[in-house]
């Protein structure tokens, strides 16, 4: 029984609201704890059976006291704090977290969101079905992206930020590796954007995908040693990688200290002057000289692409001859500031999450099949109390996982990955579908 259970939820970010709502509806008492009381209160104020408290999860004693009062803890705070939360939940001293959790008889449910979370649940669903029938997964590719809905992808990058872009931009320099036709294929961080390829997921939008870090370990993780291709990627609207690649080439992703351009006279440079400086040009160059310098830096672009990229750069404002820069510590920080300002979601706009797995299957009788599993989820229009697609797809699986633990559906102890047991995975996917209408649509495509 989950009714009357006590849950401590750490965090007050955008993914918390759907989780708190579902738990409160189920009669679970939720204590929302955040470093700022007001943030916690904003989540609890309209919900029955909830309490808001101020808590710094970095304060071991306060954390331990709060954890001691409840049946279950949900950590929706940055992952670097998760070990401390698990420690507080265990309160024993043994060398390894998993064994500690087992010894303490507690379940630590991990990675129950979107990615990781729903993506893995639906990967193992099909893999398990195929394996049970004696078949093989010869290829697994998966793409996921959190994007603006098509109608709101109305800037040259086709992208918007709900929070600081810095981490997301730096991730565009991550190297990637995956299995391709039985070999390990790699891309260096500097070439990640160049590796983006068109993805035909829906005729309603034009997406491209590029590798999402290390997919190699997923062959073992998904127990598909037979797969010659294992690839996980990130989705963006087409046009995005070319603009990012150009910004990187110019030097806007540099984390070196920005050398002052003011020559001591405290006049901030214009955007054109800063761009010229990053390109190694004199600050007196004209806009057309800067355009030429960019064109010669990005010879990888076709002339059509170059025209689009330059108009994108103009839209961002980095070719502007009159507007002064507000310089930050580094070129990257200076760029982040302007992107955050120009590419923020506005009221009434919606986000979208796209997730697609493609499985190539060889059945026991030797016949072949290509199957897709696809989720396209739209957020609610931005307004007070709205739920973004991302919040739904991270927060609702979390709530479903919490209820499953409270109701004894997951009785394994120690660190439990929701997909590690097909029975648990099936239960969670079933709950997500029937209670929240979240599911991946499966289709035989070849
Ligand atoms: C809180 O939940 C309990 C069941 O756990 C229920 O009896 C009680 O009415 C709820 N309180 C409110 C204010 O909804
Ligand atoms: C894209 O997918 C649609 C079906 O969704 C198909 O009709 C079309 O031919 C595909 N286009 C390409 C270029 O593969
Ligand atoms: C340059 O910036 C100024 C001030 O923000 C703006 O008024 C002007 O339209 C911009 N120029 C171009 C070409 O975008």
Brief descriptors of the model:
alpha/beta; 446 residues; Rossmann fold; seven-stranded mixed beta sheet; 15 strands; 15 helices; 3 domains; 22% strand; binds 2-acetamido-2-deoxy-beta-D-glucopyranose
Description of the molecule:
By secondary structure, this protein is of the alpha/beta class. The protein folds into 3 domains: 6-109, Rossmann fold; 118-238 and 346-389 and 439-444, 2-Layer Sandwich (Dihydrodipicolinate Reductase, domain 2), CATH 3.30.360.10; 257-329, no CATH class. Helices cover 35% and strands 22% of the residues. It has 15 helices and 15 strands. It has helices at 16-25, 37-44, 60-68, 82-90, 97-103, 118-132, 166-170, 217-221, 240-250, 271-278, 287-297, 303-316, 331-342, 389-406, 422-436, and strands spanning 6-10, 29-34, 50-54, 72-75, 107-109, 136-148, 176-180, 183-187, 197-202, 205-211, 229-237, 351-362, 368-378, 414-416, 441-444. The strands form 4 sheets. The chain has a 7-stranded mixed sheet, covered by helices on one side. It has a 4-stranded parallel sheet with strand order 3-2-1-4, with helices on both faces. Strands 5-14 form a two-stranded parallel sheet. Helix 2 (37-44) links the parallel strand 2 (29-34) and strand 3 (50-54). Helix 1 (16-25) packs across helix 14, helix 6 packs across helix 15 (422-436) and helix 14 packs across helix 15 (422-436). The longest helix is centred in the C-terminal third of the chain and has 18 residues, at 389-406. It is globular, with a radius of gyration of 24 Å. It binds 2-acetamido-2-deoxy-beta-D-glucopyranose (3 copies). One 2-acetamido-2-deoxy-beta-D-glucopyranose is lined by residues 200, 203. It holds the Pfam family Sacchrp_dh_C. Residues 7-99 form the Saccharopine dehydrogenase NADP binding domain.
């Amino acid at each position: 029984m989950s009714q009357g259970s006590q849950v401590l939820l750490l965090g007050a970010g955008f993914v918390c609201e759907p989780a708190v709502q579902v738990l409160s509806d189920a009669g679970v008492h939720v204590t929302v704890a955040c470093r700022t009381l007001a943030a916690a209160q904003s989540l609890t104020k309209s919900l029955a059976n909830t309490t808001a408290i101020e808590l710094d999860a970095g304060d071991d004693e306060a954390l331990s006291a709060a954890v001691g009062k409840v049946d279950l803890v949900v950590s929706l705070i940055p992952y670097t704090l998760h070990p401390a939360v698990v420690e507080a939940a265990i309160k024993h001293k043994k060398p390894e977290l998993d064994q500690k959790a087992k010894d303490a008889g507690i379940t630590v449910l991990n990675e129950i969101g979107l990615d990781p979370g729903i993506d893995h649940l639906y990967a193992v669903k099909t893999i398990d079905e195929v394996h049970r029938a004696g078949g093989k997964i010869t290829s697994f590719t998966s793409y996921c992206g959190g994007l603006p809905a098509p109608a709101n992808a109305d800037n040259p990058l086709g992208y918007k930020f709900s929070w600081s872009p810095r981490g997301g931009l730096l991730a565009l320099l991550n190297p990637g590796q995956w299995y391709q036709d039985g070999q390990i294929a790699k891309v260096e961080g500097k070439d990640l954007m160049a590796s983006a390829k068109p993805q035909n997921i829906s005729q309603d939008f034009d997406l491209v995908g590029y590798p999402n870090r290390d997919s190699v370990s997923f062959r073992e993780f998904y127990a598909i040693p037979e797969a010659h291709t294992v690839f996980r990627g990130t989705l963006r609207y087409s046009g995005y990688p070319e603009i990012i690649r150009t910004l990187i080439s110019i030097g806007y992703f540099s984390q070196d200290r920005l050398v002052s351009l003011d020559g001591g006279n405290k006049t901030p440079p214009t955007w054109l002057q800063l761009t010229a400086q990053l390109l190694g040009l004199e600050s007196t160059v004209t806009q057309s000289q800067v355009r030429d310098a960019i064109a010669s830096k990005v010879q990888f672009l076709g002339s059509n692409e170059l025209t689009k990229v330059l108009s994108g750069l103009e839209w961002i404002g980095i070719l502007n001859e009159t507007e002064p820069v507000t310089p930050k510590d580094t070129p990257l920080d200076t760029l982040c500031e302007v992107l955050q300002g120009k590419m923020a979601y506005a009221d009434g706009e919606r986000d979208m999450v796209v997730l697609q797995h493609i499985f190539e299957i060889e059945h026991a009788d030797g016949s072949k099949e290509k199957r897709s599993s696809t989720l396209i989820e739209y957020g609610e229009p931005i307004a007070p109390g709205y739920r973004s697609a991302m919040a739904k797809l991270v927060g609702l699986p979390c709530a479903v996982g919490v209820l499953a633990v409270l109701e004894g559906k997951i009785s394994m102890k120690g660190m439990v990955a929701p997909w590690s047991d097909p029975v648990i995975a099936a239960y969670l996917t079933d709950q997500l579908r029937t209670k929240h209408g979240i599911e991946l649509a499966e289709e035989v495509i070849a």
